[in-house]
Amino acid sequence: MSRDTDVLVLGGAGVDTIVYVPELPLPYADSYMIDSGVRTRAGQTGDFVAMGLSALGLRTHHLDFLGDDPEGDLVRALHRDRGIGLTAVPQPAGTKRAVNLVGPDGRRLSLYDTSRSLPDDRFPEDTLRALAARSRHAHVSITQPCALALPVLREAGVGISTDLHNWDGENPYHASFAYEADVVFLSAAELTDPERTMRRVAERGRAEVVVATAGAHGAYLLTDGELTRIPAVPPPAPVVDSNGAGDAFAAAFLFGRLTGEPPLTCALFGAVAGAHACTVPSTRTDAIDRDELLTRSAVAQAAEPR
Predict the structure, then answer these.
(1) For the chain, where are the E strands, in sequence order?
(2) What is the pLDDT of residues 47-66, one digit of tens each?
(3) For the ranges 114-118, 178-182, 212-216, 302-306, which has the lowest average pLDDT?
(4) Rounded-to-5 percentages of helix, strand, coil across the chain
(5) 276 vs 58: CA distance, rounded Å
């Protein structure tokens, strides 16, 4: 069977309700008046990665559970409007949702509704195998039940990436993702020693590349045993929201990897895409396209000290 999909994205489909608050942490009060409105839109981590990949020209398909509910309709419409293939497994518990409190500096606090998944959830194996057989690569979200899909993906011979988000380096739930993926992304936010955690992931697992993003401080890239600091790229407009920056970084990094670029170039692509994402309000779902990514990356590269 020909591999007519570049990236199969597993999990991470859902909706966010966005609330812009005057500060974070938010002091206790009986009530707050939200002049900007409270808005709900489709787009969680898997959706953002899928949109980022598709905007960069990669053939993308998304597999996850969705409910027969208004939230699921929003997710279906998002994929339909962006031309992204979607296989939705029925979820009686409903579509995943979260509330994001966003501060004036773009930082966020996310409240996840964990009632929207069930302990016995499983991707239909025939569906998973068929989609994996058609794909060059699989990006696996850490949502339930994606860990159980990893052996099938490995058997299918596809490359695997994952994003551990704000893993503390110890939580065992993340371990199967960390040690089964070829490319591992994570945030440095909860790590006291990012290099130690990154090297442990590489030593104990299959990872050829480990990337720890560090917001305005850039990122760390570990490949072939060498740790490199990746400088942050200045955003092209004022920072309004950090939501989706890590997903944009991962999508652009994978674009580089799947088009044959070396890891340092992939990381530059990620930094440029992450900076772009920080200028997009949470209420929108705009991703950087290929031409803009390549142009901004060339400018950033030219500005680097020699």
Answers:
(1) 5-10, 14-20, 38-42, 60-66, 85-90, 96-102, 108-112, 135-140, 159-163, 183-187, 209-213, 219-223, 226-230
(2) 999 999 999 999 999 999 99
(3) 302-306
(4) 35, 25, 40
(5) 19
